[in-house]
Amino acid sequence: MISKEILEAILKVIDEGIHVIDLDGRTIFYNDIAAAHDGMKVSEVIGKHVLEVFPSLTKDSSTLLQVIESEKPLVDQSQTYVNVHGATIDTVNTTVPIYVKNKLVGAVEVAKDFTQLRKLIERLLELEYRRIPTKQKRKSTGAHYTFEHILTDDSDLLEVIAKGKRAALSQSPILVYGESGTGKELFVQGIHNASTRRAKPFIAQNCAALPETLLESLLFGTAKGSYTGAIDRAGLFELADGGTLFLDEIQSMSPGLQAKLLRVLEDGVIRRIGSTKSNVVDVRVIAAMNMHPEQALVEEKLRLDLFYRLNVSSFHLPPLRERKNDIALLAYHFIDQLKKTSGQHAKTISAPLMKQLELHSWPGNVRELKHCIEHMMNVASSPVLLPEDLPVFFTEKRKLPIEEITPLREALQETEKTLIQLALTKTEGNVLKAAKLLKIPRQTLQYKMKNL
């Protein structure tokens, strides 16, 4: 059996705050890390009741005393309290009951200091709010593009735009999905400007750009005193009241935050963090994803109930490689843009170059094409853009000797077979994990496995 001295020595060097109380609520162990978190000395806490040392706590708010009372563990509970010196501390605690011979003798708490992180969150919120114009400063609604700004001759995309114009007249939430660079925000701004909300705010937020705690505070707002340094601040739902809130890369949002979003979509009510007051908001939510919803559901990145609510109106924006007729149209549009903004001379595209542009797969879609044209406009020495003006990644592709070339279908099947086998090997035969690794639905993988 480990002696008391050895156990205490181990607990003292653990890099987490540890606080142990007995059944009476008196501290019987308190390590140096916990003391540093709480702004106390170990000697000020040992032997004293937890409510004596932290007078802002009560029997109902102290996680240690709650566990003594309920005999049930509390996991990752946030707690804000004030010590006897008047300092405010924010922690995230895991607290569990202690049993000896099946008898409750006390409780132990492992605490992570959240104070500095809260201060950082507050600073980041300040910076994020500066990015969003206030109603007084806003010279426009925040949506600069209409459907007329979407350049296309592609019949599929034209049909999507026509449906988008009709959906704009409703008040239902909308889901837009497509690869990065396909113009999702342009399309969403088009919906806003074609709607009855066009004169009201349009606010866009990328859900992948911020950690969960910060994103939650930004969306829902904060109440004064909800944590150290917190002030009364409206969230994006309130700022977008009457207008549109565009949430990009929604699959990056945590399941818990997705559940809160679903509640807002259902009843239109939000509550600032730390507040007991509910506010009704009139906001149309448009969400976007850079992956197919089915894939997001299989990978458990999107809640099924949220998908059902958003999928009232959904739109898929096709990738540029499926819109070959748009490549020339967009390329000359970007040439014209650069001529106007940078004073460059107009250029034409040679036939061999246009052929290469049409054969390229454009993984970065319209955004990649724009950057490619800009590169060529900067380096071209003649009025005609040539294949040699292309960026390096176009010209450094691996070239197979002619004798190595096999029929395309056969080569693709062999490559697919190899990738599936590698994925199954890596996941020890777990089909669901292999599907996630390959980023395809489980059902699709099972079908392909049958045909290997």
UniProtKB/TrEMBL annotation:
An MF annotation (GO) of this entry: sequence-specific DNA binding
Assigned keywords, A-Z: ATP-binding, DNA-binding, Nucleotide-binding, Transcription, Transcription regulation
Domain of life: Bacteria
Domain Sigma-54 factor interaction, first and last residues per copy: 150-378
Keyword ATP-binding attributed: yes
Keyword ATP-binding applies: yes
Pfam families for this protein: AAA_lid_14, HTH_8, PAS, Sigma54_activat
Ranges of residues in domain PAS: 3-54
GO process terms (BP): regulation of DNA-templated transcription
Protein name: Sigma 54-interacting transcriptional regulator
